[in-house]
Amino acid sequence: MRLSLALALLAAAPAAAQQQPNAAPADAPTRAFTGSDLFGLSIAADPQISPDGRTIVYVRRTADIMTDRMQSSLWLIDVASGRQSPFAAQGSSPRWSPDGTRIAYVASDGNGSQLFVRWLATGASARVTGFPGDPQALAWSPDGTRLAYVATVAGEATTLGKAPPKPEGAKWAEPLTVIDRVNYRNDGPGYVKPGRDHLFVVAADGGAARQLTFGAFDDGGPLSWTPDGRAIVFAAIRGPEADRQVMNSDVMAVDVDSATLRTLTTRDGPDGQPRVSPDGMRIAWLGFDDRRRSYENTQLYVGDRAAANPRSLTAPLDRAIEEAVWAADGRSLYASYDDHGQRRIARIGMDGRVRPLIDNVAGGGLDRPYTGGDFSVSKGGTIAYTGGDAGAPADVWVWSGGTPRRLTQLNAVMTAAKALAPVRKIAVTAPDGRPIDAWLATPPGRVAGTRVPLILEIHGGPNSAYGPSFATDVQLYAAAGYAVMWTNPRGSTSYGAEFANLIDKNYPSADYEDLIAAVDAAIADGTADPDNLFVTGGSGGGVLTAWIVGKTDRFKAAATQKPVINWVSEALTMDNTLFTSRYWFTKLPWEDPMSYWNRSPLSLVGNVRTPTLVVVGSEDYRTPVSEAEQYYAALQIRGVPTALVKVPGASHGGFTARPSQSAAKASAIVAWFDRYRTKRAP
Questions:
Q1: pLDDT digit string (tens) for 530-578?
Q2: Dihedral of the CA atoms 283, 289, 295, 296 (nearest 10)?
Q3: Using CA atoms, how far apart are residues 301 and 176, in angstroms rounded to an integer?
Q4: Does 110 score more than 70 pLDDT?
């Protein structure tokens, strides 16, 4: 079913159910947050501070209403005054030269993405690459004369036999596609095209690029030069069984002159994001020992110049490190990690001592309140980062001398004109006594003590985390008169490895009780109307939504988004072919099918009486469309009220990438809930 048709069907709900708070005449502005407002939002990303700490270049992502896509432009900020100036009308991945006189960035040349360099003194830019490949992971050489990057090298497609000769001018069908790779499609990019990602180096003022790595392997960034400019360290999965490894990457080094490769780490587990220390004597990287559990904390390791004698600096922290960079003195590192649903930045010494610095890092997405955010550090220790709260998308902030300061307010004009939902933290205790973090947004203008319908919004992963950050779905639901509850049940990250692994080989399970406890807390709080409860969630949250309606009839209606319904079919059709059976189960599907079935929401469909909407992207290869269609078919067979909404062209990760579809998807869910919402007299 196309999205437009689905929305037309859902629009048949009673007109009274569609009324919005803060309504205004059709020709007048409204203070309610609406789907159209998604086109007015901007979000800051990838702030890169100059070596001297005086200037920041960052990516500003803004919706283009004519193309219905998020467009990226580059802006400069003077740190002292906060004054902004445009740098490039479109571009991404800005990186300062070591002397701070130039910025390299990626921008389109009309046919694809290329690498450009801007000289700040003159404002002149030059394109320094000129071939297909979309450069990424840019890294300047220490002397500023060269740039290293990763790009795709096209390959030859596999063939079997051949078609008969085609007459000149004939219009024949496309040739056969032969698939022989274990991972043959990726969510987002789609079916894998012949080719591999490799390292290149090019002169910073232009010229022919030189390929440094080769073979039937994919090499990845970030890239880090040794201080003498002779080698570059990176991460890759290489070896005879590379395509059959899921996460077993190693830190490697390539000699820039000879292209000789050295493998620096060899353990069973992912090692990546290597960074060479300023003096070249040590390498830091992120990784963990792979114990085939659903979750492991990514730890920060430091070894010698060959990554030998490694030791973890963050094992006692019991949190996953997201990114780490060396301090200029080489005696510590700055690292980001999530803690209790909030991204933080700390300085970590060689003795493992953690000194927390920043606690309001935010950014990444717009539709749901996931943790996220980016940062960079100047030579003097000034930190540029994306930060914020539930009141607006991420802005650029700067931290210096112990004080954070906000430098941009990209959405101040729009948010000042809107009545946004207030957000507060609410205490939840699980049945086994564990404290569970949760947040509650209430409709703008709600009178204290008034009970309102509640939507339980469940995060995906399941090993991920929500936090107190801005989310358009939350604001759209609240503008329609619903309170919104989101929580981090067991299995969520940012609470330590033990908490995340409470659902290892047992998902869904007691996370269900945590979610129900959160709903009960919202009722006990006096906010939620116990007769008007609704539930939704995407990906892992879609799994739990379908699980919930198979376990209880408390909810008036549900919307399961991009769910897994049958673990056997998901394990054999998802894009990362080897993942599910290796990390979420102890045996393969044909060895122990009942363990897969007993944890599949489809096994509970015979209990479902809750009207349940099913929503999925038409090009979802992570939780494939067939999962959603199975559930829709089962609900139809049982006679449970249902509808299937497909988001055209949308992948799993790009489910809400286009603003119109993000707004329409939220509207479809609201319309479905409004259809079953009990109306109460004032």
A1: 999 999 999 999 999 999 999 999 999 999 999 999 999 999 999 999 9
A2: -50
A3: 47
A4: yes
Band of the pLDDT at 15, cuts 50, 70, 90? very low
Please state, in angstroms and as integers, the Cα–Cα distance from residue 25 to each residue in 28, 30, 31, following that order: 5, 8, 11
Query: Sign (positive/negative) of CA torsion 290, 295, 301, 306?
Result: positive
pTM of the model: 0.93
Q: Which tokens sit at 514? A: 């945590």
Which residues face 577 on adjacent strands? none
Determine contact, residues 103/93, Cβ cutoff 8 Å: no
Beta carbons of 522 and 483 less than 8 angstroms apart: yes
* Number of other CB atoms surrounding residue 454 within 10 Å: 27
Distances in Å between the Cα of 46 and the Cα atoms of 144, 306, 363, 427 are 21, 29, 9, 33
Q: Are 87 and 77 in contact (CB under 8 A)?
A: no
The model's pLDDT over 447-484, given as tens digits with 9 standing for 90+, comes to: 999 999 999 999 999 999 999 999 999 999 999 999 99
Would you mind telling me the total number of residues written for the chain in this entry? 682
Distance CA 158, CA 540 (A): 35
Q: Identify the three-state secondary structure at position 93.
A: strand
Structure tokens belonging to residue 28? 């007048």
Sign of the C-alpha dihedral, residues 268, 241, 320, 354? positive
Distance CA(427)–CA(425), nearest Å, equals 7
Residue 48, classed as helix, strand or coil, is: strand
Model pLDDT for residues 388-402, shown as the tens digit of each residue: 999 999 999 999 989
Which residues face 119 on adjacent strands? 102, 124
CA 618 to chain centre: 19
What residues form DSSP beta bridges with 663? Answer: none
3-state secondary structure of 43: strand
